[in-house]
Amino acid sequence: MAQGLTMRDVLSSQGVDASLDSATKKDVLEALSSCAATLLGEDKFAIFDVLWERERLGTTGVGQGIAIPHGRVAGIKKVFGFFARLKQPVDFESIDDKPVDLVFLLLSPEDAGADHLHALATISRHLRDPALCAALRQAKDAATLYKILTQDVPAQAA
Question: Quick one: 9-149 is in which CATH superfamily?
């Protein structure tokens, strides 16, 4: 999974929540940890600890209402993504001080090396597209969100 990585390599149709209901950044990370743990068959507390430790280094709120919490987790076998649109925007201590309503969780194996960075770049490139984010905010359900997220993004958006 080198630079040709696509969103379909990271995200499954089960890895999308159209209305995650959380009130704080910690709540969001706990909910995402639970969702990921269920899909991966891993410990939700171990996943949360990785995410919380990463947040302590600096916010993963990248601006424009978007957060990309991420980390490397022992035991998982491949790069994994989970996308959630929040019911209500949450203060994520983002770099632009705007609340977050679109969250893309990225988890990678501990030895993922460049794959983790390539996946992070792919996700970031997709979510930098204002039209794509507008479509995500207007989508009616998880299936539509998945379709929007996994459509090909033109090269100039990179």
Answer: Mannitol-specific EII; Chain A (3.40.930.10)
